[in-house]
Amino acid sequence: MRPGITQKVTVRGQGRTETEPLNCIDPDSFYIDWEVNSAWSLQFTAHQDGSLAYSMLDSQASIFFDGQEYIIKQAEPDANSGQDSLDVVATHVYFEVGRIRKYKTYVDPADNGKQTDVRVNGGTQIENDSDNGGDDSGDDDDNDPNSQKSTSQSKNGNTTTTTTVTKTDETKEDSEQENQVDYKIDDVLKYWIDGNSLGFSYQVIGDFPTARIEQLSDGSGTDMLSKITEHWPNAIIYPDNRNIRVYTQDEFNKDHNNRLDYEYNTTEFKWTFDSTSLTNEVMCIGGKYSIDTEVDTETDDDDGGQPANVTKSAQGFIDDARSYLGVPYVYGGAGGARGGNPRSGMDCSSYVSQVYQDFGIHVPAQTVAMEPYFHEVSSPQTGDVGFYGPHGGSYHICMFLDPNTIIFEPQPGEVCKEEPASWFYPSWVARNDQMAAIVGSGTGAGGSGSSSSSSSKTVEYYYFAPFMYRDEDSIKKYGEYPAEPIEDGRFNDKNAMIEYAKTKIQPQPALSVEVTTYTNFKPIAGDMIHIMVKSQQISTNEAVVGFNWYPFSGNNPTSVTLNSNAQNILDYQNARNKSLMNAIDLLKDQNNYSQPNNPQGILTITREEAKRIEQYVNQQNGQQTDEKQQG
C-alpha cells in the first residue's frame, strides 16, 4: 500500500451507516474506467486483512473515492498461495437511476381502488347524441383532430350539388407517430426523477432544442438516459453522484490548459482513422396530408328543369352533343354553368357543362373545377370526358361519343367538331357516375321522380417535395456516400428536416486517438487537451471522451481516448499531406545525389512515379485550397 491511500478510498456496507477506510487494496489493480455516455466504473483487488472494511466488500456496498460513490456489482473471492482476496467491480452510483420505474395508467381513474370489474383506462367510448332528425349516418371524421372539413353547396335549376373537401394530416395519423409529443430535455428528466425516493436530482447545462418523441409512459430510468442520448445526439451525461447532469458539448468540452506531447509526457499515440461509416448525402421524405373530395348530386325531375326532348340513353347523349356541332369557339363564352345562349359561342369547358346540364347534371364550366366531379378510368365509354394536362392542372377537355370518337370545342377561330380519338387523345379519361348511369339506363325522356349520384376522389400530397440533403464539402473531398433514406412523417417543415438530416450523416471519417502517458496523472472528462506529435507535424486540440486512470500505481500509467471533430480531422489530413510533401522532397534529393552527371540537379524518376506524385499533390492541394476557403 502507498501512504495516504487509506484516506482516499472508503467503504460503506449494505444497510450500514458508517464508512471505513480500505487499507487492503493492491495499488496496481485500482483504476477508474470512464467512457462518455457509456461506462463509469471502479475496479480493484483487495486482500484479506481481517478488517471490518474488508468484510463490508459485498454486493451493493458503496465505495467512495475522489468525491464520487460507486456501488459494488461484482465481488469475486479468490484463494491463492495462502492469501484470500476479492476482485471488486463497482459502477458509478448514477446507474442506480435504472431502479426508478414509471408505469402507464392501466385502470380508468374513476375505478381506482376497485379490485374487480375494473374498467380499462381509455376503454370507455362515449357517443354524443344530437338531434339530427333520426339520421344515424354520422361521419367518423367529424371529430378527427387530424382532419379539416369544408362543405359547399350549389343549385342549378333542378340540380343540387354538395361538395365536401376533407384535409387529413397524415403526419399525425401514422400509427408510429400518433403518440408523438414535443418535449424539452428537462421534461424527460422531470418525468422520471421528480418525486423519486432514491435521492436523484437533475441539472441541464446548455441550450437544447425541443424534440418530437413518443409520449412518455412506462419505462425505467435507464430508458430515460437512452431517450436523451437518442433524441439529443449532442447531449453528454456526466453526473455528480446522484445529480444527473446533462451538458451540451460546448458546455462540457472545456480547455483546462493541459498538453500531451509525444516523447515528452507520453509514450504512445495510436491514431484510428476510419471511413467505414462515411455518409454525406441522404434522401429526405417528410410528412403528408390527403385531400378527400366528395361530390353528391341530387336532381328533381318534376320541376321542369330538364329539357323534355333529351333521351336518357347513350344515343341520347350522342345526339345532344352533336346538336352543338358548328357552334363557334368563344373563350369564356356562354353555356352550362355560365348561363346565356350556348349557340352564341362556347369554349371547351362550357360546352361540356352545357351537355351535362341538358341531362340534369351540374358541373362547373372550368376544367380544374370540373375534376372533382369525375374519377379517372382506364378506358372510355359514351358520356366520359377527356382531360388534357395533369391532375389539378388540366387546361382543355373533350367528350367521348364512343371509345374511338371525341367531340369538343377546339380553339379560337374554329367550331365545335367531331374527330377520331387518336387525332388528339387526352392526358387522362374520367367518368361521372351519374352520367354513366344515364347512358347505360336506356330510359326515355320526361320521367318523374328524382335521382342522385355521388363521386369521391382522394389525393395525397407531401408538405414539401422529397429532397436530397448533401454535405457538399464532404462530397468534394471523398465523393458521394449515400445514407439510408430518412422517411419521417413528423416533419412538415423542410428546414426542420434539414437540421435533423445533418445529425444522421457522418460527413467526415471517424478519427480517434488513444494516448498512453508516462505518469498516472488525473485526466479530466471533456478536457480539450492540446496534443503535439512533432515527427508527424500534428498539432491540434481534442476532447477527452474516455480514460483508464490508475491513481495509486507506479507501473500502470494513465491512458486517455480523444475524440474526433471536423477541425482535428482537418489537422490530421494536413499533417499527412505535409509528410507526403517531405517524402517527395527527400525523393528528389536522393535522385539528385545518386546522379553525378546531373549538375543542374534535375530530378529523374520514372514516368509512373511522376504521374502518381502529380495526381496526389494536385488532389491534396485542391483539398487544402477548399479548406482554406471554408476556414
Can you offer a commentary on this structure?
The protein has 631 residues and is an alpha+beta fold. The protein has 13 helices and 33 strands. The strands form seven sheets. Strands 1, 2, 3, 4, 5, 6, 7, 17, 18, 30, 31, 32 and 33 form a 13-stranded mixed β-sheet that branches. It has a six-stranded antiparallel β-sheet with strand order 21-26-22-23-24-25. Strands 9-10-20-27 form a four-stranded antiparallel β-sheet. Helix 6 (314-322) packs across helix 9 (433-441). The radius of gyration is 40 Å and the shape is elongated.
List its salient traits.
631 residues, alpha+beta, 13-stranded mixed beta sheet, 6-stranded antiparallel beta sheet, 33 strands, elongated, disordered N terminus, disordered C terminus
Instruction: Characterize the biggest β-sheet.
Output: 13 strands, mixed
Oligomer: single chain
Mean pLDDT, rounded to whole units?
80
Q: Give the total of beta strands.
A: 33
Ends apart, CA distance between termini:
53 Å
